[in-house]
Every structure is written in C-alpha cells, then in structure tokens.
Design goal:
heterodimer; A: alpha+beta; 6-stranded mixed barrel; B: about 260 residues; alpha/beta; Rossmann fold; 8 helices; 10 strands; about 25% strand; globular
Chain lengths: ~850, ~260
Amino acid sequence: MIRRTFKLAWFKRSRYSLTIIAIALSVAFIVSTLLLTTSIADVGQPLNDAYEGVDVVVQGPSITAGDGPVAGIKAPVAPSVVDALTNAGFEAVGFTSSYAQILDPGGNAAGQDQASSNVAEPWLGDSPLNGYEISTGAAPAGPGEAAIDSTTADAAGLEIGSIIRYVTDNGLQEAELVGIATFGGADNDPYTSTLLLDQDDPVFVPTQGFSYVLVADGTETATVEGIAELTPNAEVLSGSDWIAEQIDLLNSFTGFFSTFLTVFAVIAVVVGMVIVTNTFTVSLAQRTEELALLRLVGTTRRQLMAQVVLEALFLGLAGTAVGVVVGLLGVNVLGWFLDILGLSIERSNAISTIAIAIGVLVGVGVTVVAAVWPAWKATEVAPIEALRSAELEPPSASRKRLMAGAAALAIGAACLVYGMVQTDILVTGIGIGGAFLALYLGADTMIRIAARLVRPLLARAGPTGTVASRNLERNAGRTSAAASALMIGVSLIGFFTLMAATIGQFIAGDSADALRVDYVVQGIGSQPEPALNDQTLSALRSSDGVDEVVPLYLTSVTSTNALEVERVGPGGGSLGVAVTEVEALRAAYDFTVNDGSLDDVAGTLVVVDQALSDSMTLAVGDTLEVTAIAGSIELEVAAIVETTLPGAPQPAIIGSLDLGTALGYNSPATVAYILGDADEAALTQAVGLPTIDVLTLDDYISSLSSNLDTILALVYALLAVAVIIALVGIANTVSLAISERLGEIAAIRAAGASSRQIFWSLISEFTILALVGVVSGLGLAWVAATAFFRALSEGQINSAQTDIATGLLIIVAGLLGGAAASWLPARNASKADILDVLRAD
Amino acid sequence: MSSAGSRKVETETPSSGATSEHVASLVGASKVFGEGDAVVRALDDVTIGFRRGQFTAVMGPSGSGKSTLMYCQSGLDRLSSGQAFVGDVDVSTLSDQELSVLRRSKLGFIFQSFHLVPALSAHENITLPVDLDSGAEVDEDFLAELAEVLGIANRLENRPSQLSGGQRQRVAVARAMIPRPDVIFADEPTGALDSKTSGELLTYLRQAVDELGQTIVMVTHDAVAASHCDRVVYVQDGRLVGEAQQPTVDDVLNKIRELS
C-alpha cells in the first residue's frame, strides 16, 4: 500500500507542490526561530568556564523595606571587606562596574552594536578569579597598558601595539594595546565590551564600595560558611550559585526576545495548520468519486483512511525535509537581520538538535493531524456516490460550525468586556482568542453574505460576474480557509502597527511636546550611559550662545509598595527618578501642574506624574516610601504634573539636586538640556568626546522611539514571513478551487467567453474573498489592540492610536496580496485549453 | 428519403476563400499530434465545405479524426497546416479574443456531456452567449419560443443539477441556438441519452434546419442519428473516405461495415 500511496501522491505532485511549500516555509520558520532562541539562551555558557575558579561571592545585603527584600537593589560592599578577606588568607578581588568606552582608530565608539555595557576590569593575572585569558600579545603589566576582548578588537579594527583611546567617567584616556583577551573560551563576556587595565588604575578606585567581591581559595579554603562568618551584614553565596544568577540575569535580558520569537513560531504553526487542513479538505472533496469508487470495489473505510493519512505523511516529510534545510540557512539570515538592525542580541554558533526535532515533529505531525479530519469526512462517502454525478456541497453553512462560531463569539465578547472593565490581561487574551475563533468559524458565513451583497455589482459584468458571486457563495465552506489565512496575516500586521503607533504616541507624544529646549546632550547608543561629568557640563555652559544647561541625573528607586505600581514599559515596579535643578528645568520643560506647586520642590519634596498619582492614589502632601542604593527613604509629594520628562525609563518622580545625595546617587548626569542660540558644531566641539551626542530637539524626539522602531523592523520582518506563508496558502486554496472548476470554465469559454472575462471573474471572486479576510483581520486587530492596551496599561491607554490612512493602506495591501496570490492560478485557468477539458469528459 | 442512387461520392472543393454558400469550410486541413515515430495524423489534407441550411453528420470509427475535424473547423483547435473558414474568415488567423467573440456570436456548441454551468439557472445558461456580449440584447420572444418547442419552458429557473439528462441537453440546444449562429457544432449530442430522448432531440435539430434554416454539423457514431441528416461524410485515418446525401440507417450501417 505504501508503494501505491506514494505513486498516487507522486502523480498529484503538482497539486501538492504549493502545500509542500507551505509546510516547508512553516517548518523553516519554526526551526530558524527556535535555533535562534536556543543560541541566544546559550550565550551565558562562557560564564561557567570563565568563573570556574570562583568559590564564593560576597555581595552587599539586599535592601529590605516594608515586607521584605526589594529585588534588584543591593548595598555596596565596603572596600575594607576585601582587605579583611585577603588578610584572612583568601584570594579576594572587589569589582565595581567602571564605565569605559573604547574608541576605534577613527575616534568613534567601538562595539556599540553588540555590547550593551562598556566596562573596564582589572587584569588579575594568574589568579583563579581572572575570567580572562590573553589569546594574543601580553597582559597589561602596568599603567598605560591595556588589553581588550577579541570581539571588540575585531569590531573596532584595533591592533596590538597601537595606542587606543577610551572614555571613562574621568574623560578621555589613552593606553597602549598590548593584548587581546578571551573570556571563558568565548570572544567576549556576553553583551560586554571590556577594557582590561592594571589593577592599580585609578578607574578601579571605589567611591562607594564594590558591587561584589569574588573569593577563591588562598592559603585557606573558601567556603560559604567560613566567608559568611568573616563578612557579617553581607550576602554570601557559592560561586556556582552566583554564576547561575548571572546567567539568569542575561536570559531575563533576552527573555522578552525569546518569547517574542516563540510567539511567531506558534503563529507559523497555526497558519501552516490552517493551510494543510484546507488543502486536504479541498483535494479530498475533489476526489469524492475516486474514493467512492475505491469503496465500491471493496476498500474498507480504514484502508482508505490509512491511504490518505499516509499521503499526508509523505507530504509532511517532503515539506519538513525542505523546511529544515531552509531553516538552517534561515537562522543566519535572521541573525544577519538582527545585526543590520543593530539589536544587541548575542548568539552562539551551537545548533540545537532539539530545535530541529521540534521542527520535524511539528511539520510531520501537523500535516498528519490536519489531514485526519478531512480524511474522516471524505471517507464517509457512500459507494453509490461513485455512480452519481458529483454535486458540490450545498450552499448553506454547516449548522455545527455556525453554532460553534456563535458560541466562540459570545464567550469572546464576554471575556473582552470583562477584561476591559477589570483590565485583566489573561481574560482579555482569552477574549481575543475567542474573537479569532469566531471569525475563523464564521468566515464562510461572512463570505456568503458578502457574495450576496456584491452580486448586483458583479452581475453588471455579465454572466461571468454572476458565476463568480454564485461560486463564491457555493464554495464558501472550502475557500474560507484562504480568507482565514489572510485574516491572520492582516490582524497581526494591524495589531503590531496599532501597537507601534500607540506606544510611540505614549513615549514621544505629549511629554516630548512640552520640551522647550534647543539641544539635548546625552551619551551615544540606544540606552545612554550616565556620561556627562562636571567637566563636560561646564564646557557646555561656557560655549557661545548657551543660556542654560539643565543636567538630569536619572536613577531609579523601588517603591516599597511595589505591587501597587504598574507602569507601562520596562522597569515594572521600579520608578524612574530625575534629579535636577528644578528651577532651571521649569524653563526647559512646560509642565502642566495639576495640583500643588513646583516652587516647593526641595529635599525630599518631589514632583510626581499624574499616572503615578493615580496608580498609588497619591495626593499633594502624601508620603511615598521608596528604596534606593542608600536605603529606604520617605518622599513627600509637593506637586502633581500631567506628564513628566520624556525618555526611557520615563521618570515618574522629579526631585531637586539634594535628593540625589539622599538617594545615594553619585554618577554623572545622563541627559543635559541646552537652551540658547548655540551652534551644534560648537557644542560638539565643547564636549569633545565621541561617546556623547549633541542632538537637536527634533533628532532627540525621533531618537526616543528609535528603540521601538528597531523592534518593529524585526516584528515586520518576521510578520512578512508569516504573511508569505499565508499568501502561499491562499494561492494553494485558489488553485485547488479553480482546478475543480475547469469543466465549468471550459463550458463558459465554449459559449464564447474570452480568457480575459474568465480571468477577471476569477480575480473578482477571490478579491471579495480577500476583502472578507482583510476586513475581519483589521477589525480583530483593532479590538485586540484596544483591549490589550487597556488591560496592560491598567486603563492608562483607553483606545488604540487609530490612523485611517494606515488602515486603508493595510486594506489595499491585503487586497493586492490576495489578488496577487490568485493571479497565477486564475491566469492559468483562463488560458487553459478548452479542448483538454472537454476531451477529459 | 433518398435511395441508393444518391450514394455517389460528391466532392465539394471550395476555391481558396469560401464561396457564399459555404458557411464553414476546411481547405487542405491537416492536424498532426506527436513527433517522430509517435506521430499521428488526425487530419490529413482534408478539404470540405458545409452549406447554409444543411444538416451534416460526420461519421467514422473511434480515432478516425471526426472530432478533430469538428474542433478544427470550429476554431477550438488549431490546424497544423491548411485553413479553416467560418464564413469568409480564416479562424486560424484569429486571436483568442477574436475566437471568443466568434464563438459567442457565430457558433453554437452542443456536447455529449452537456457542459452546462452548474452555478447558473437554465435560463441563464441559455442566455450565456448573448450576455457575454455587453452590446447584445437577449431576444426573449425567441427564447420563449425555443423553450416552448424544446419543452423546457417550465424548467427555466432550475439549476442544471435539478434537470434530467434530456432536459439538460435541450437547455444546451437552446443555448447553442439563441445567438442565431451561422453554424452549430454538435459533438455526439445523443451519446449520453436514451433512445427515446435522443429521438426527440434529433427531431428538434431537424426542425431547426427545416424551419429556421439552421446549419448543423454533427459528429456521431449512431446510424439512426445520421439518418436524420441531409448529408453524411465518412472519415477514416484523418481522410474523407466517402459521402452520401439523404442517408438511410441501412446505408450508413453498410458503409460503416465496409469501412471497418
């Protein structure tokens, strides 16, 4: 039977070629996204090797406040701890994250694409605590010598023996590059560009203490218990636990991204499944007579099922084989695309067999599962059907399908309403799922209604138009999958477009409009470092034409009542704080004061934005307990403003300069607002550092959404793949639907219809099909985006940012896509030789 | 009906370009399928004309080329060499668009398996050729008359799936008649019908020739069907091998026996 089935499938290979392409594309998409996800998750591995020699790690105590420890904020470890440990016979080194941006020979910042942190680390020589090894050249042996990691050296084109320049908090520095280092066998510490300097370099002098202290055996054996006894008030953990913590931190960094890729893999599976189910439904319906004939000569239903499922297996295997190969290539394309976008996503070169196995399982499994239901329906055929002339399905919706659709709609709508009122993200998600299911199940009914609505219009084009509208109605059950495929594509594009517009408006909209400055100066990169030291600020102040320089010291605190605070965007429970010269800021930013007075801001008296006031029910005069590096501190609300300063994280709290001291913040400023009729080039020259950008107001505002734009570019690229899969599905459905109508087309052609008339009749039929898909997809996208934003923003965003022009653009693009996908099959059918069909009868 | 005397072979050779009495004609028509050893000459240098108002049967054994003759004459198929005229137009020079216009205005087709459009009602199927022509109007009186004569007047709103085989074929006849074509090509029109129904259909076709002056070219292997015709031509191995006027069933059966 296997042989016979294979022969039959081979015989029908042209009919199945689009199905195989659809399966292959889906599998390729799944494999490449999973490979990318696993290779991203793998980048933490070098830490294990690099810090193998670390036995114990001492960290500052977690700062506790209110109900318990506050995540993410730890007090520094006093420098005396290192001395105590060393004196006790251990090997101990204190680390602090010292900012050091390496410059390439052209004087520009190096390694910006890959590294999200640029640090200097002490060269620890033979110590087991040294995570680095010199791969070429020598180790830095004293002041004025430096080594850098291999990735940064390659990216910046820096060679041993040359003088390299780098920028630290103390300004521009120089050193001779004496060596290239690797980290735990990898080319760099993940997401980090590292400058290795002599231990005694002034950059390592701790101002406040160390972030952590690494400990290894010296003359004494280092154990967690032993070290803990020596370091009361500190948090002591084993080296392996610490490494695991660091890897978790890295993964949480890319977790969003991995989730994101997984979501797209799931989308690809859903689209693939819809297409395969549809292919089998249509191709089996066309073979009713053949199947009935087999039944007539004594084939059991089971044998028939086995044959069809085996056929699906062949298709699944063929598509999967192609898909895996394409997927292996595709992961490089995806990676290349990430690099082009400048997204700081590091990947290992490891190829995960699990990713490939999942791809194979999904490709073959989905195809077989998708074939089972149509096969079961098709094999229900009575042998007598072979002797009757096959009539197509009756022009009415399946009652079961309609009822299931209505149920999905009712549940979906109820969940959406509940989710929007209660701003519950989970229920909202279920509601969106219900709406999707309702549209999927109701697609054929919608197509029938659309067909009836447009019939008078189509009838004007003559009988071919009438035939188009009637066929649309009659075959709705089968062709609705094409509309559904398009619906998925359009709703995804619509959803993400709405998301972009809404978030973009939220980030850059009102709060940026109130800026009244001429220039904004900040560190380079998408997440600027606090890089504006006093020297830079005074250079700016003394530039020609500058009236005022308002430095912003940005930090964050955790609310003691963290659970009460829900802010849109990254950061979660942490609150952005801007510390500045409030009086000067009032000239640079047009505050809308809702309550209180800005005059009162001083010390722990602060300004909060309306959103924070709403979510924590704060009024002027109320206190707000927050936790910072310096510990727990009580703030008092002096004023409530509509919006605070733009930027990410958007500060929810603004305080005076003395608040910075109280919070324990002592880094340079992150942003400086410049007022005055200054020259951009003069300002750039005054700053004199390639690590700092001078932006005009317009440039600054557009830079605010550049992170979002990058992510969106990626979203659209991934969506494009999903949409291509959907279009292949449409082409497949259309060509199958047309192939069963060749007899009818030949009859109309014989009666004198020109191939052009046939072509346009088919195109108009499938364009209406596409219209149903596009409009329902856009509707779904709007409902989903609105509900989603309401739920996610706790009611801060009440409706999605709608733009009619974009909506129309998506509709037109969707229709064109649908028409394009049906173009070839329609053209082939309209040009088909009438005689070939007539002779076949 | 004529006797044995009319069985003499008469060869009509239209001059290049057709004479006005020929509504359709083939001149030196050849049709070759395949290449090399597998070459099949479905039509081999055939020259024949069909007169206005004449009912012609084209007969021959399976594979003789009789259907190919009809397809090439009607422009559904292209000749390998020679010319095929409808009126004074050489159909081999026409584009697909021009052929379509020719089919809807000058030609009618009747097929063995009806080839009605399932999505359209009987009425819509009949008016199809006229409706396809945006400038043309359906002659509703003529349609009513056709439906009356064909006995399908009360079935016009039905879809093909709701009609019997005989009714379907009569709808197909009406569809072929409605544009008042120069010539109707019928390919085994009675092949799928029982003898009573075929008898009725042939009587109707005969009536169309006699009363409306309709020209009909019918491919058939049925001697009874051929006996309704004014003229029968025999085709074997792609060549014309005989012709008779006013044939009887016996004449036809004898000739077929002779050929095979």
